[in-house]
Amino acid sequence: MSGFDPHWLALREPADHAARNARVLGACAEYLSGRDIVDVVDLGCGAGSNLRALAPRLPNRQCWRLVDNDAVLLDAARQALIAWADAYDSHGDHLSLRRGALRIDVRFENVDLARRLDPALGVKADLVTAAALFDLTSERWMREFCDRLAAMRAPLYAALTYDGLETWTPSHAADADVRAAFHAHQARDKGFGPGAGPHAARALHSMLEAASFDVRTGRSDWRLDARDDALVAMLADGVAAACRETRLLSANVIDDWRAARRGANATIGHIDLFATPP
Predict the structure, then answer these.
(1) What is the CATH number of domain 6-166+193-225+267-276?
(2) Which of 45, 59, 130, 148 has its CA 20 to 30 A from that of 2?
């Protein structure tokens, strides 16, 4: 899986945090409440946004393993977490953070999830979590992941899985064609096999239920307006670049669509999921 631009991840973080489904997040927090300490594995952690969103809802003592195949993003996560914390202590691949009453030990692990899933998951976790990951993976990989999760008897909190919903205001004549080309690009291999793309949330839900997990889901759509102009512009640039790679649309159509998206409002669909083992 190729890395993501740390600037893009920083730009989308406020929208990601605002979009999280409160009911699904609350179910995760309730499941882990009352524990003295929780061990969390964050897969495809990027710049650490998932920790910053979830940690305030968990018990005060936490141990996190942040796993990503991109060393640049792991370094960005370290720096962003240091800035987020009230105080910190750094030692090798470990970081000890204090933020309010929270005491969080963090370990950074550079692991290719597509090829080394077992080492990434480890042998024990009170919670496995990931944000904006599963639409990049394949159904085959998700099936292997669900089998491993069931063997661990670990719960999963998966946030912000893209589900294909896109609504732009004002509309553009090429919206449907651009969305179809973008979905075709999502189906390409991102390192895990043919991408599940907008079908990932439904597939993951079905696989977990087949493994007898109790699964709760809720919408976590981005709702972007004039306050999010920089994010909207970068989103449109990324979609346009992906469409160009597919060669399914002419450059003129893509350029016209991209220009029309400047200053537009957008709803981008995501699904949050929390699943507990039998």
Answers:
(1) 3.40.50.150
(2) 148
